[in-house]
Design goal:
This protein is 45% helix and 13% strand. With 390 residues, it is α+β, with helices and mostly antiparallel strands. It has two domains: 246 residues, Hypothetical protein, domain 2 (Endonuclease III, domain 1); 126 residues, Alpha-Beta Complex (Nucleoside Triphosphate Pyrophosphohydrolase). The longest helix has 18 residues. Bound molecules: iron/sulfur cluster (SF4).
Length: 390
């Protein structure tokens, strides 16, 4: 029997059980007010003693909170903290960020991944300076009109900075609410209902702490793998707990395996001991970052042939492919890649940016000045440890 069918049956049976129905929380049914009040009070009480002490919670500056919200998308708290602290030293205000060069912004973000977040922060800072006098707008619609700010980020920033009664629905909150309501489908198939539930339980007098508490509940107790229901302030009203299906919820989307691409990559050396790098076009994945040139290996093609072909097409030059430097595996959200990296020698032609924004010859020491995607930083490490071919 499939996971969905078994869970669906358990949840359906529970609807007939008067005990659970009495205490049930369903995203599409209004909750009794006493349940809402108990959920609010117990969560806020728990937060006072168990909430996390995080650097951005000591600030009510919407800019600092906004930076933390963007960094925390897709990235864990412990990774974010040093980036957040360095960022605010380097770009202490919205004006400072808006005035910075995109290369500085991408360099400060290097290693955090999902670089569209950094480009959007930068663009939004410029927009705030232009349209809102450098002050983060205290208004949901205006905040959501900025690049990279969706409803949950806007709700998170505005509730934390201005105590506005706006709900949130990030990944942690989706999981908690899916369990609270014993949601009978994957959360992404019930977004409207989950937003309604998040709005319904929000404590309107103290949305700042309530939203932070909700995020902490997901991060500390209602975790993805082993929800710690014994310590949970919501145990009494949690439908998943009462049905004993908390470890099986939320239901997962059935996913096809990620496509896997083989990539040929050239580290091209010239007679002066320099290396050729190119800057990716602004639009698309990793836009604006620098990389070693190369491309996808076509069916029936060797990696060496691929590298020669790609370099001719992308840069208009002839090269000789030499020894292999390193093989790097990397996974993005929607696909995996294997970078097959080879030392290459420049033979003829002036490199031109035919399929990228810029090309540049740099020394090994100068590579550190440029923002590179994570997979490329492993190539740089290998290059520093290798013998450079003559
Ligand atoms: S009782 Fe368990 S499943 Fe329910 S909200 Fe709490 S930790 Fe999550």
């Amino acid at each position: 029997m499939s996971q969905h069918k078994r869970l669906g049956d358990a949840i359906a049976q529970s609807k007939e059980s008067s005990k659970i129905a009495q205490n049930s929380v369903s995203p599409w049914v209004n909750l009794p007010s006493f349940v809402v009040e108990e959920l609010q009070q117990t969560l806020l009480d728990w937060y006072v003693s168990q909430g996390r002490d995080l650097p951005w919670r000591r600030s009510q500056d919407p800019y600092a909170i906004w930076v933390s919200e963007i960094m925390l998308q897709q990235t864990q708290v412990k990774t974010v903290i040093p980036y957040y602290q360095r960022w605010l030293v380097q770009f202490p205000t919205i004006e400072a960020l808006a005035a910075a060069d995109q290369q500085q912004v991408l360099k400060a973000w290097e290693g955090l991944g999902y670089y569209a977040r950094a480009r959007n922060l930068h663009r939004a800072a410029a927009e705030i300076v232009k349209t809102h006098g450098g002050v983060f707008p205290a208004d949901l619609e205006a905040a959501m009109a900025l690049p990279g700010i969706g409803r949950t980020t806007a709700g998170g920033v505005l509730s934390a900075a201005f105590n506005l009664p706006l709900a949130i629905l990030d990944g942690n909150v989706k999981r908690v609410l899916a369990r609270l309501s014993a949601l009978d489908r994957p959360p992404n198939k019930a977004i409207k209902e989950l937003w309604r539930l998040s709005e319904e339980i929000l404590e309107p007098q103290n949305p700042r702490d309530f939203n932070q508490a909700l995020m902490d509940l997901g991060a500390i107790l209602c975790t993805r793998r082993h929800p710690n229901c014994v310590l949970c302030p919501w145990q009494r009203h949690c439908r998943a707990y009462n049905l004993n299906v908390q470890s099986e919820l939320p239901m997962s989307e059935s996913r096809a395996p990620l496509p896997h691409k083989q990539i040929g990559v050239a580290v091209i050396h010239n007679r002066q001991g320099q290396i050729l790098i190119d800057r990716r076009r602004q639009e698309g994945l990793l836009g604006g970052l620098w990389e070693f040139p190369g491309g996808k290996v076509e069916p029936g093609e060797t990696v060496q042939d691929c590298i020669r072909r790609e370099i001719k097409e992308e840069l208009g030059i002839e090269i000789e492919v030499g020894d292999r430097l390193i093989v790097v595996d990397h996974a993005y959200t929607h696909f995996r890649i294997t970078l097959n990296v080879y030392h290459c020698r420049h033979l003829s032609g002036e490199p031109q940016p035919l399929e990228c924004d810029q090309v540049r010859w740099v020394t090994l020491a100068e590579l550190d000045q440029y923002p590179f995607p994570k997979a490329n930083t492993r190539i740089i490490q290998a290059l520093k440890q290798s013998e450079i071919p003559t």
